[in-house]
Automatic annotation (TrEMBL):
CDD domains: HTH_XRE. SUPFAM superfamilies: Fic-like, lambda repressor-like DNA-binding domains. It comes from candidate division WOR-1 bacterium RIFOXYC2_FULL_41_25. This is Fido domain-containing protein. The record marks E113 as: Important for autoinhibition of adenylyltransferase activity.
Length: 309
């Protein structure tokens, strides 16, 4: 997330009552350095800004974005939507654009989940059926399966309302040949590494998913805000033994295409930020996740512009 370190320092001082000397000690720096930062005489290094932000989150928390900020971002997004009408047709008619999307979405989504394949290796696997030396069979399947799921989406196999059958089919395509429970809800207790979130018990998953499905197809307010909020909900349910992140991101792509938007391209280089705003949405405020999703859709439009004649 973009950091305004001066505002964060001031907020820490106001919230905690610490003196500048005490805050400098907490941050492991000199008083003189802190004073220079506050008065804009120098800029803290990246690691120092990270430490400031960590202390800011610990002491102040992350404040929601204003409604005006979200409204402005949505207006910018709608301008792009009006410039590029019928994204589904653009994908269907422009093979070069379609392949670019397949590669960007497959590589980034799998990399977020820990795949070690490079973008070039992913390209060779999904388009040339290459066998990459020293890369696991599972990683090869993850690439081809994800590309197959996207092809099905682009061909219109998942148009219309989001249903339980469609979600399970997405999971089946993604995990076929990798897990024996592909396409089935988990029968075991699950946890998200590094996140203090209690997931529903296996016996509660059918009920939780029915609740989710009742909400996902009834849009109240702006569709993009709705999509972001329901993505946070799905990841908090985490119904499958593995592949929840990839399924959740594909659900968003289906919803966006159905609503006439470009797919959201969530880049692996923003993985830490993605996880942060996702957890924030589940605990406190959805506004930062909405902003992140908008930015990821705009990334999709950037790819369209590369191929527009």
């Amino acid at each position: 997330m973009p950091h305004n370190y001066i505002e964060q320092i001031k907020a820490i001082l106001n919230t905690t009552g610490l003196s500048q000397v005490e805050l400098a000690k907490r941050l492991g720096i000199t008083f003189a350095a802190l004073n220079r930062w506050i008065n804009k005489h120098s800029i803290p290094r990246a690691i120092a800004q990270k430490n400031i932000y960590a202390l800011y989150k610990e002491t102040v928390g992350v404040l929601p974005l204003s409604k005006e900020t979200i409204k402005s971002l949505l207006c910018s997004l709608d301008k792009e939507k009006k410039k590029h009408l019928n994204v589904k047709k653009i994908i269907r008619d422009n093979r070069s654009f379609r392949d670019d999307l397949l590669l960007e979405l497959t590589h980034n989504s799998n990399a977020i989940e820990g795949s070690t394949l490079t973008k070039k290796e992913t390209e060779s696997i999904i388009f040339d059926k290459a066998q990459i030396k020293d890369k696991s069979y599972v990683e090869h399947l993850e690439a081809t399966n994800h590309a197959a799921a996207l092809e099905a989406i682009f061909e219109g196999d998942f148009t219309g309302s989001i249903t339980e059958a469609k979600i399970k089919e997405l999971h089946r395509i993604l995990l076929q040949g990798i897990r024996p429970d592909a396409g089935k809800y988990s029968k075991h207790h699950r946890a998200i590494r590094g996140v203090e979130l209690t997931l529903p018990a296996p016996e509660d998953l059918p009920e939780e998913m029915q609740r989710f499905l009742r909400k996902i197809n009834i849009v109240k307010g702006k569709i993009v805000a709705h999509i972001a909020a329901l993505h946070a909900d799905f990841e908090a349910i985490h119904p499958f033994g593995d592949g929840n992140g990839r399924v959740g991101r594909l659900i968003m792509i289906i919803q966006l295409l159905n609503a006439g938007y470009a797919p959201c391209v969530i880049e692996n280089k923003r993985k830490a930020e993605y996880y942060e705003v996702l957890e924030l949405a589940q605990r406190q405020s959805e506004s930062h996740l909405i902003k992140f999703v908008i930015e990821s859709i705009l990334r999709g439009y950037q790819i369209i512009k590369r191929h527009k004649k």
